[in-house]
Amino acid sequence: MRIIPYGHQWVDKNDIKEVIKVLKSDWLTQGPKVSEFEKALCKYTGAKYAVVVSSGTAALHIACLAAEIKQGDEVITSPITFIASANSVLYCGGKPVFADIQKDTVNIDPEEIKKKINPNTRAITPVHFAGHPCDLEEIKEIAEKHNLLIIEDASHALGAEYKGSKIGSCKYSDMTIFSFHPIKHITTGEGGAVLTNRRDLYERLLLFRNHGISKDKKKMIKFDGPWYYEMQELGFNYRMTDFQCALGISQLKKLEKYIERRRELVSIYNKELSKVNGVILPIEKPDIKSSWHIYYIKLRDSKRRKTVFNKLRKNNIGVQVHYIPVHLQLYYRKNFNYKVGDYPRAEKYYKSTITLPLYPKLMNREIRYIAYILKKELKLK
Fold first, then answer.
1. Which of the four, 117, 224, 249, 377, has the lowest number of CB atoms within 10 Å?
2. Is the pLDDT reported for residue 380 higher than 80?
3. How far is CA 71 from CA 84, 121, 207, in A?
4. What is the pTM of this model?
5. One domain, residues 265 and 244
6. How many domains, in total, are found in the chain?
7. Whether the Cβ atoms of residue 208 and residue 69 lie closer than 8 Å to each other
8. Distance between CA 94 and CA 120 in Å, rounded?
């Protein structure tokens, strides 16, 4: 039997055809497909502006730069996320501060956010874990009360909805970032985007994507001629290529189909595992439409996690763990003196969780096989 990975891209003939068209054109880097992809993202999410970049990490970085995070500033985020959510704050000289998670959704807890706010707090970066949106209304109320910015880390949540609004609309935030890594809902190989409704942030994002350079003579201190450009900020080369954008445009057209399939697969998992006493399944709140980036389970007996994990791997099931709490990473323990026990809910979740395979090309029978091996290991029928 083939190895079943926990995630996998779906690139079809039409996707390849669109990329080939660009490869045969005059544009490979920053051509017309870049703005076309950005407009498509805006149309899909409802946001006014989009800036596509080379990775989700780059998107987080320039979002923090646009938010003017600097030395001494603090940004509150979740400890259950990929390290880039926190590292992007460090890149700007700021300090990431963690707030513990909710037990049911594994998302950042608004009540814990309140406890972490102090005069140095500049922004909140809620992470929509597994594709399930955070409690954005509550987080927005907290941010407005303390005059804080909100940067949604929606790397897992393209296509998700919160109270009828698409994640990425920025209805409850200043900026939203997406990732287009191959295991995400759509892919550009590597890639990401920042969406916003604020013109001032949009213009800063454009600068930071491209070396801090402006070619708009209206915004220059001096203008020597049509060849002239002016470096106005210390920016980066975070540009996305035209052929990547061609792939992104093609993939975006199939996003709803991909999410529908993910939801079908989740229903099968839920049906197969709902009566397994040793397992706690992920939830979806009534006012939420999760985009189900990953399907994670929690074992009631966390001491069995490694044994169960190894058994699944031995049976060609490419399970994974999402995530090691960021505050327990060596760098954060050494430089910020974090220790075991600082965020008990996050740590308890980590000790018990396993991510099962979930992607549109996963077959129904493969889910039943995964469930069979899992139940067999847990000694259940």
1. 224
2. no
3. 18, 12, 20
4. 0.96
5. no
6. 2
7. no
8. 10
